[in-house]
Amino acid sequence: MEDSTIEDSPKQRNWPIYLYIPNIIGYARIIANVAAFGVAFTNKKLFAILYFASFVCDELDGRFARMFNQKSTFGAVLDMVTDRVSTAALLVLLTHFYKSHYGLFLGLLALDISSHWLQMFSTHLSSKASHKDMGDSKSTLLRLYYQHRYFMGYCAIGAEVARHAVAERTVYGIVLVIALPGCAIKQLVNLVQMKTAADVCVRYDTHRYSSKSQ
Amino acid sequence: MRGLSPMAQLSEWLSPTKNCLLFSTLQESTFGAVLDMVTDRVSTAALLVLLTHFYKSHYGLFLGLLALDISSHWLQMYSTFLSSKASHKDMGDSKSTLLRLYYQHRFFMGYCAIGAEVAYILLYMLAAEGNIGSPYEVTCRSIGNGTVYGILLAIALPGCAIKQLVNLVQMKTAADVCVNYDYARHNSKAQ
């Protein structure tokens, strides 16, 4: 995860940004994700290991960026895009594992895409108004959906077990019951944020037209 | 599992047409542009998810196309925001620069975008009507048989392929914008 301020000491100028250590970790994370979803149907244990490896990379790249003073806008965007794609891939996986409730997970995918897209747009429009750096607003977005993504990862890994677990009251079942309200609240928050973000878009146009007519 | 209704299929076909209509009338709004973009993203994603189900053996191909669609559009969007900040241009003005480019190459871009959506819908139709096999087998068979779907697929597929290449190229260009943004900021600080 990247922090808000992006600083580059003069020493780093000769080190190409694409080869910054946290960005290389970012590439490793992508490879781990690709490998994980490649085996998602054939080898669930391997999927769990690879997905956990990508989660470790996600944790490390932020720390390394701070440690080596190698924060970059590209790194922040890479992080964000990888999160978006891996959430989408997880939801696709769930449409396959819970085929009878395909609509639920497709709906969650639609909600995820729309709410984050609208939020990104409205953040951009507000930052233009307040002259804030686009990079600063990125970490709030990341924090918002990070928890949601952990739950999705857990769901995919525990899909087979979870189906029987609630009835048998095993550990997975109990954790699932605890995590579900959080997941539900997150979706409600997504919905609310979509409306708020859409309002920002409308207000942006209204202000533009009213300042033009003055 | 319900498939796409005829109305949903129709709205898929109309989406690029709707874009043309939107910009030709004067009822542009930022919210409308965002709504349009979001609808495109979600409907493409949903179509690709459908295809992972109908061609389960080639699940990876359609998941990969979904990943490419999401990442390239997100990167493009982010880099557009960064460039417009760097040049202090108004969001509306940079939108019209994009529009100007779009109109210059409108027909070719339209063909590629429509080609991709049409190819996905046709693959769905072919699978839904009981054609079994990999997407490659189904495509070759329908083109070889010279059915309506086959002919349309033969026309649409090059556009679809070009669209994916363009997506890849735009990812690299957008990433470069992110990198140059940092260099420009650092240089202006050093001065």
TrEMBL record, chain A:
Pfam families: CDP-OH_P_transf
Keywords on record: Lipid biosynthesis, Lipid metabolism, Magnesium, Manganese, Membrane, Metal-binding, Phospholipid biosynthesis, Phospholipid metabolism, Transferase, Transmembrane, Transmembrane helix
Entry GO MF terms: CDP-diacylglycerol-inositol 3-phosphatidyltransferase activity; metal ion binding
This enzyme's EC code(s): 2.7.8.11
GO cellular component: membrane
Subcellular location: Membrane
One GO process term, biological-process aspect: phospholipid biosynthetic process
UniProt keyword Transmembrane helix present: yes
Transmembrane spans: 20-41, 100-118
Recorded topology in the membrane: Multi-pass membrane protein
Coarse class of the protein's main subcellular location: membrane
InterPro entries: CDP-OH_P_trans, CDP-OH_PTrfase_TM_dom, CDP_ALCOHOL_P_TRANSF_CS, CDP_diag_ino_3_P_euk
Reactions performed catalytically: a CDP-1,2-diacyl-sn-glycerol + myo-inositol = a 1,2-diacyl-sn-glycero-3-phospho-(1D-myo-inositol) + CMP + H(+)
Alphabetical list of PANTHER family matching this protein: CDP-DIACYLGLYCEROL--INOSITOL 3-PHOSPHATIDYLTRANSFERASE, PHOSPHATIDYLINOSITOL SYNTHASE
Family indicated by similarity: Belongs to the CDP-alcohol phosphatidyltransferase class-I family.
Protein name: CDP-diacylglycerol--inositol 3-phosphatidyltransferase
Organism of this sequence: Physcomitrium patens
From TrEMBL, chain B:
Broad EC category: transferase
Gene3D superfamilies (alphabetical): 1.20.120.1760
Membrane topology designation: Multi-pass membrane protein
Organism: Physcomitrium patens
Similarity section: Belongs to the CDP-alcohol phosphatidyltransferase class-I family.
A single cellular component GO annotation: membrane
Location relative to the cell: Membrane
TM region(s), chain numbering: 108-127, 147-166
GO MF annotation terms: CDP-diacylglycerol-inositol 3-phosphatidyltransferase activity
Organism lineage: Eukaryota, Viridiplantae, Streptophyta, Embryophyta, Bryophyta
UniProt keyword terms in alphabetical order: Lipid biosynthesis, Lipid metabolism, Membrane, Phospholipid biosynthesis, Phospholipid metabolism, Transferase, Transmembrane, Transmembrane helix
Keyword Transcription regulation: no
Identification of the protein by name: CDP-diacylglycerol--inositol 3-phosphatidyltransferase
EC numbers on record: 2.7.8.11
GO biological process: phospholipid biosynthetic process
Residue runs in coiled coils: none
Reactions it catalyzes: a CDP-1,2-diacyl-sn-glycerol + myo-inositol = a 1,2-diacyl-sn-glycero-3-phospho-(1D-myo-inositol) + CMP + H(+)
